[in-house]
Amino acid sequence: MDQSIRTYLQNLRSNGEKRLAVLIDPDKAGTEYLHRVVDVVNRCGIELIFFGGSLLTRYELDEHIRTIKSITDAKVILFPGSSLQVSSEADALLFLSLISGRNPELLIGQHVLAAPMIRQYNLEALSTGYMLVDGGKPTTASYISGTLPLPADKPDIASVTAMAGELLGLQHLYLDAGSGAMNPVSAEIIAAVRKVTSTPLIVGGGMRTVDQAVAAANAGADIVVVGNAAEKNPELLEDIAHNVHAIKVKTQA
């Protein structure tokens, strides 16, 4: 990938192409697991690895990212739960504003703390409107953030929230049911957001099957994110990647 990650994501959107990203939680990432997952990443042409989570109990970010980058050409993008999860070893960072909630720390507070490090490390910052969606049970993300997720049966609320994020200048949108969610973000929610926005759209949380990932991509997700399922069955990534990468839709973006 000889381009900025922002340009890569914009080109996916413009070309109607779909991609799978793997989310790796640093707290669950032992060396053996990293090698297993990255082996699958390399075999099926996955180009993006999201690295991070809402809760960090062991600070081994730099070490784990160095391990990943030593065995793959996939880009490592930080998915930070706080300003503590910034690493100079990564290729880029999702600069997440939690626009589904009203917690000022996650709208601007943590960003102020992280900004000097991001500049110092010369990290590519991908401004992202982050929206938690109810996945059927409380998740670590909703608990740690102290916010309520968007209702799963109210696509109109999701669409106007996404619209506001785009109007604020956020260049990417991320719909997330949360790690370990019972249900992924519905096709109705994804389609409603896709209809009113033109930014690259990332969707994750609760993806356990090929059908769920394909449904998300067909509904409008440009990037489908798989996390927990990859931890339990890395080989599932091969099937999901094959099916998601085969999708190409017409777009006017």
Features of this protein?
single chain; 253 residues; alpha/beta; globular
Describe this structure in words.
With 253 residues, this protein is α/β, with parallel strands linked by helices. It has one domain (5-246): TIM Barrel (Alpha-Beta Barrel). The protein has ten helices and eight strands. It has helices spanning 5-15, 31-43, 61-71, 104-121, 140-145, 155-167, 187-196, 210-219, 228-232, 236-245, and strands spanning 19-24, 48-51, 75-78, 92-98, 124-132, 172-176, 201-204, 223-226. It has an eight-stranded parallel barrel with strand order 1-2-3-4-5-6-7-8, surrounded by six helices. Helix 4 links the parallel strand 4 and strand 5 (124-132). The protein is globular. The model has no long low-confidence stretch (mean pLDDT 92).
User: If you consult CATH, what is the topology?
Assistant: TIM Barrel
The total beta strand count reads 8
Low-confidence parts, pLDDT < 50 over ≥5 residues? none
Cross-sheet strand order for the largest sheet: 1-2-3-4-5-6-7-8
Element-level helix/strand string? HEHEHEEHEHHEHEHEHH
What structural class results from the helix and strand content?
A: alpha/beta
Instruction: Assess the beta-strand content as a share of residues.
Output: 15-25%
Note the main sheet. 8 strands, parallel, barrel
Function: Prenyltransferase that catalyzes the transfer of the geranylgeranyl moiety of geranylgeranyl diphosphate (GGPP) to the C3 hydroxyl of sn-glycerol-1-phosphate (G1P).
EC number: 2.5.1.41
Family: Belongs to the GGGP/HepGP synthase family. Group II subfamily.
Binding site for sn-glycerol 1-phosphate: 174-180, 205-206, 227-228
